[in-house]
UniProtKB/TrEMBL annotation:
PANTHER family: CYSTATHIONINE GAMMA-LYASE, TRANS-SULFURATION ENZYME FAMILY MEMBER. The lineage of its organism: Bacteria, Bacillati, Actinomycetota, Actinomycetes, Propionibacteriales. The keyword Transferase applies. GO terms for molecular function: transaminase activity. Coiled coil: none annotated. Keywords: Aminotransferase, Pyridoxal phosphate, Transferase. It comes from the Bacteria. This is Aminotransferase class I/II-fold pyridoxal phosphate-dependent enzyme. Belongs to the trans-sulfuration enzymes family. It holds the Pfam family Cys_Met_Meta_PP. InterPro entries: Cys/Met-Metab_PyrdxlP-dep_enz, Cys_met_metab_PP, PyrdxlP-dep_Trfase, PyrdxlP-dep_Trfase_major, PyrdxlP-dep_Trfase_small. Its cofactor is pyridoxal 5'-phosphate.
């Protein structure tokens, strides 16, 4: 494809079959556990047309080569497997709880050691990364909404000889391209914005290094955490409309962040799009939009926050994010969530409904 197309065009057109007479417009999932001998594909755990189409599209958006996995965690686990035995990882204090739990489990068995840092504190991270094998970054972080300085951290990680990974789930490949900012590997929970309809669990990594891609592809074969063909096809179908979905969800999020900021019951709002947010300048420099996730707090009131989550009728009280439907949850309802995340922090995943309907429902729930 033409290299200078806008990402909102690339997301629609990348990963399509060649335009020859009678070709279909999109690749179809191949439902076969094996292939006739003599070719490169060999077996269903190694390759599938639906994976390849999704991988090509994600690669075109992020500026590298894609590889899909059974879930975001399967992708994260394959990446963590790159750490040498006894190696050291620098990871955010606040990040997706499943990734932090995976690292803790691996540390508990002696497989590796983990140093947890405030990922928004560039000076501290740059010191901690000396001698480390991997720097795991998430930005904005789930659910604290901290913003890491990606170019500075990628440079510090590389200078220290550490592999630099960015979990780009919250930003999506349309709003932030970490490979272009110096990262080695981008990881996604495609379950979220990429698939976008709360009906698929899927993960992906993208890297510009052919060597890393080949190593990770071998890991996927060995670990066996492959996506189903149907899931990959659904995720690509969802991805085609990401630009439109994000446009609406993002403007809804900006509107709701402002409303929450003005609400007397709300003590703190974290959304990088707010001019006074600590991550605003960084996000404005490295993202092309501020995304559709925000977090707010109710001044230390955990049970009160739980009541708000249970008092909505339009907002879906559920975990996960990035779907067309707006969702909310109090993250500390999960025992696995990091204890420094406040008890009363509510994470909003803003969908594509009408903003007035979303605010009306949230406002009545805040009276609970
Ligand atoms: C959900 C999520 C994951 C895990 O992805 P799954 O698809 O649920 O395995 C990883 N990172 C972030 C930021 C997430 O939100």
């Amino acid at each position: 494809m033409t290299p200078d197309l806008d990402p909102s065009t690339v997301v629609v057109h990348a990963g399509r079959p060649e335009r020859v007479p009678d070709a279909p417009l999109g690749e179809s999932p191949v439902f076969s556990s094996t292939y006739i001998a003599g070719g490169d594909r060999g077996y269903g755990r190694f390759d599938n047309d639906a994976w390849a189409a999704l991988e090509t599209t994600l690669g075109a958006l992020e500026g590298g080569r894609g590889l899909t996995f059974a879930s975001g965690m399967a992708a994260a686990a394959a990446v963590c497997d790159l750490i040498p035995v006894g190696g050291r990882v620098v990871a955010p204090q606040h990040a997706y709880s499943g990734v932090l739990a995976l690292l803790d489990q691996q540390a508990a068995t002696g497989r590796l050691t983990v140093d947890r840092v405030d990922i928004a504190d560039t000076a501290t991270v740059s010191v901690a990364v000396a001698g480390a094998d991997m720097l795991w970054i998430e930005s904005p972080t789930n659910p604290a909404m901290e913003v890491a300085d990606l170019p500075a951290l990628a440079a510090a990680g590389r200078a220290a000889g550490a592999l630099v990974i960015v979990d780009n789930t919250f930003a999506t490949p349309l709003l932030q391209q970490p490979l272009k900012l110096g990262a080695d590997i981008v990881m996604h929970s495609a379950t979220k914005f990429i698939a976008g309809h709360s009906d698929v669990v899927l993960g992906a990594i993208i890297t510009a290094s052919d060597e890393l891609w080949r190593t990770l592809e071998q890991r996927r074969r060995s670990l066996g955490a492959i996506p189903g063909p149907m899931e990959a096809w659904l995720a690509l179908r969802g991805l085609r409309t990401l630009a439109l979905r994000l446009e609406r969800a993002q403007s809804n999020a900006a509107f709701l962040a402002q409303r929450l900021l003005e609400h007397p019951r709300v003590s703190l709002v974290r959304y990088p799009g707010l001019p006074d947010d600590p991550g605003h300048a960084r996000a404005a420099a490295q993202m092309s939009g501020f995304g559709a996730i925000l977090a707010f707090e109710l001044g230390g009131d955990g049970p009160g926050a739980q009541r708000v989550c249970e008092s909505t009728s339009l907002w879906v009280h559920a975990t996960s994010l990035g779907g067309v439907e707006s969702m909310l949850e109090r993250r500390r309802r999960w025992p696995i969530e990091v204890p420094t995340i406040p008890e009363d922090l509510i994470r909003l995943s803003v969908g594509i409904e009408h903003p007035d309907d979303l605010w009306a429902d949230l406002e009545q729930a805040l009276k609970a």
